[in-house]
Amino acid sequence: MAQKNRLKYILLGLLKKQRQTGYDLAKSFDSDIGEFWTANHSQIYPLLKRMEADHLIAHEAITVGQKLQKKQYYMTSAGQQTFNAWLKSPSDLTGSHDEFILKLFFIDDPKSELLRPMITMQQQYHDEKLHHLEQQFQEKFPNQKRIDQDFGHSLVLRHAIDRERGYSNWLAEMVKTIKTE
Amino acid sequence: MAQKNRLKYILLGLLKKQRQTGYDLAKSFDSDIGEFWTANHSQIYPLLKRMEADHLIAHEAITVGQKLQKKQYYMTSAGQQTFNAWLKSPSDLTGSHDEFILKLFFIDDPKSELLRPMITMQQQYHDEKLHHLEQQFQEKFPNQKRIDQDFGHSLVLRHAIDRERGYSNWLAEMVKTIKTE
DNA sequence: CAAGTCATGTAAAAAGTTACATGATTGA
DNA sequence: TCAATCATGTAACTTTTTACATGACTTG
């Protein structure tokens, strides 16, 4: 597999919230989910067909006006199960397509018992990553001379560190929020 | 094109720093550049061939020990030009593969006159994005009830806002750094 | 001398982008 | 009525991943 077909899970997650057409799903990538993932209708339509063939979703044909045929897609129970299994599976974030964020997006209940273990795993990952990055910075840029020699690299590494710090803080905030819920 | 072949520019940028083999280039994606982009050797080797056919790079065969053949790749002047043109071209960041960061990585001179205009463009983009996201949050989550109804979405949106704020701060810091240089 | 790393490749498949194509409905 | 938007699809191509494949060098 080229990737783990995250788009499939995104579509399932969106359909879980409400039954909708391929067109509606495609629009979601211009706003909401668009902050974290992109997809075009030309990728969505064929995938919906495949998912229907796999019995993860089904559709109801609706006629609008005189002729316009819409396909209102909805999740099957198999789709539900597949989606739930994905939520529980370990998240990877190769290529900066952060799968954890993706999963989080679909957990609408603040009391979900999935949240805490997911966050804990993520905290561990990001703490380690932050530590690793800080070490890298120390090694590669111990003084101003090195920074001036490879300025862009130092900026980018600093950005990565900032990003991880921000990520960690955000996770810590999250823990507080669900604690008081 | 499926994307704008950013990997090509990454390889050029890495070769600009020093001539090296495909194997060496592949290793870079385990550390350095690995924070921002991933690539496997199976993608790198064929691309190097294509780039050589396009005269962007060339190689020198080196024999190590008795038989081992290495291909030491290096940039041609055409490659230089292509790379420089890329640095000056507008950056897009669809799919969270942030091209600006990628470009920055390759600007090793803190006095480069490319930096300021690039940063300015980026600041504008991220300020607008931040504003847009904050508005989104206000619209979608005006009260706690809405947050509880769509908890994950709210967290993820908050994360996006944090991320943009972090990005903006980082850009502002950068401006200060290059100012005093 | 064996394990780990260095070194280079190809093949098959999945994922994603861009372009091509068509037609209906809605609101100004 | 005309432009914008709704709605669905296919084709061609590029990018990316995973797996297959081979062999040399280095260090303990």
Automatic annotation (TrEMBL), chains A, B:
Transcription regulator PadR C-terminal domain location: 98-178
PANTHER family in the cross-refs: NEGATIVE TRANSCRIPTION REGULATOR PADR (PTHR43252:SF6), TRANSCRIPTIONAL REGULATOR YQJI (PTHR43252)
Domain Transcription regulator PadR N-terminal: 11-83
Domain of life: Bacteria
InterPro entries in UniProt: Tscrpt_reg_PadR_C (IPR018309), Tscrpt_reg_PadR_N (IPR005149), WH-like_DNA-bd_sf (IPR036388), WH_DNA-bd_sf (IPR036390)
Protein name: PadR family transcriptional regulator
Pfam families registered for this protein in UniProt: PadR (PF03551), Vir_act_alpha_C (PF10400)
